[in-house]
Amino acid sequence: MRVLGIETSCDETGVAVYDTGRTGASGLLAHAVYSQIALHAEYGGVVPELASRDHVRKLLPLVRQTLAEAGLAPGDLDGVAYTAGPGLVGALLVGAGVARSLAWALGVPAVAVHHMEGHLLAPLIEDDPLRGRPEPPFVALLVSGGHTQLVAVEAIGRYRLLGETLDDAAGEAFDKTAKMMGLPYPGGPQLAKLAEQGRPGAYKFSRPMTVCPGLDFSFSGLKTQVLLAWRDSDQSETTRADIARGFEDAVVDTLAIKCERALDAAGCDTLVVAGGVGANKRLRAKLQAMAEKRGGRVCFPRPELCTDNGAMIAYAGALRLQAGQHEPAEVKVVARWDMATLPEVARG
């Protein structure tokens, strides 16, 4: 089954084709992402109306480009998958409208995909050459600009929320902290790059909510600590790098501590990490060391599949289409969508 995936939940236009008849990474026939970073940089954040308009401009050319790279014509597709939520409603409607129209014209089924399920399944697109593809049960850390969640994955489509952020997501905290220190948009990757030059231990910030039991997160207080440290410092480039390192270490340590607790709570030793912050080098190293210490395993998607992309939507949609799930012929999206309400995917 060859499935076209369309992702337009925020400020990336993503398109991909996944073929279930192939194994591992070879199933991803082609994928492309157009980022709107330059468009929104002037405003210091995503402007929903501008995001929607840019998806309108870029989506169809990207579909044509991706099909050409996959060596396919539209009539070769067996299904279409699209992000239906959560996300910006206007942006979601662009992708859903194109996906539903294309599916109707081709006479193939279309399936709505949960954006965070797409992220959760992204590490499963490619097989580990030594240990193969991770299979449930496992714990997933979904960590991005909009979400920070720990999820017990009992089966594909059967998810149990273990903990989530009570305020800012980890990626959002990265972006806002970077902005406070005058780094350019998007700030998160800039802060992580700057932290590589910082001295470990020069600034020591708290690891929020790690001294109390539970698996929820909170990063707003950490931002305040950084703001006070930056305000009272000499604001030199060296100090900026040291504060960035102290902030990154605090976030990474907090995520690692909570992940280990979640593995204990779920009674398993496999951790899957997805979302934009999953590309952070220090987080990857920390979680890898934690997994090795306990004799377990941690799985990441390749960095380009950590951020929003069509590949994860094509793959997640292909699993559901193979299981016989599809949507009626209507354009419907939701800004908020509880992943626990998704139906389980029957695996043959």
UniProtKB/TrEMBL annotation:
Entry GO MF terms: iron ion binding; tRNA N(6)-L-threonylcarbamoyladenine synthase activity
Q: Which cofactor does it need?
A: Fe(2+)
Q: Which domain of life is it from?
A: Bacteria
Q: Which GO terms describe its cellular component?
A: cytoplasm
Which ranges carry the Gcp-like domain? 28-315
Q: How is the cofactor bound?
A: Binds 1 Fe(2+) ion per subunit.
Catalytic activity from the UniProt record: L-threonylcarbamoyladenylate + adenosine(37) in tRNA = N(6)-L-threonylcarbamoyladenosine(37) in tRNA + AMP + H(+)
Keywords of the record, alphabetical order, are: Acyltransferase, Cytoplasm, Iron, Metal-binding, Transferase, tRNA processing
Q: Kindly name one Pfam family recorded for this protein.
A: TsaD
Indicate which residues the UniProt annotation says bind substrate.
142-146, 175, 188, 280
- Matches recorded under InterPro entries: ATPase_NBD, Gcp-like_dom, KAE1/TsaD, Peptidase_M22_CS, TsaD
GO biological process: one example:
tRNA threonylcarbamoyladenosine modification
Subcellular localization, as worded in the UniProt entry: Cytoplasm
| CDD domains membership | ASKHA_NBD_TsaD_bac (cd24133)
**Residues engaged in binding Fe cation:** 115, 119, 308
The keyword Thylakoid is annotated on this UniProt entry: no
* This enzyme's EC code(s): 2.3.1.234
Q: What does this protein do?
A: Required for the formation of a threonylcarbamoyl group on adenosine at position 37 (t(6)A37) in tRNAs that read codons beginning with adenine. Is involved in the transfer of the threonylcarbamoyl moiety of threonylcarbamoyl-AMP (TC-AMP) to the N6 group of A37, together with TsaE and TsaB. TsaD likely plays a direct catalytic role in this reaction.
Q: Which family does it belong to?
A: Belongs to the KAE1 / TsaD family.
What is the name of the protein in this document? tRNA N6-adenosine threonylcarbamoyltransferase
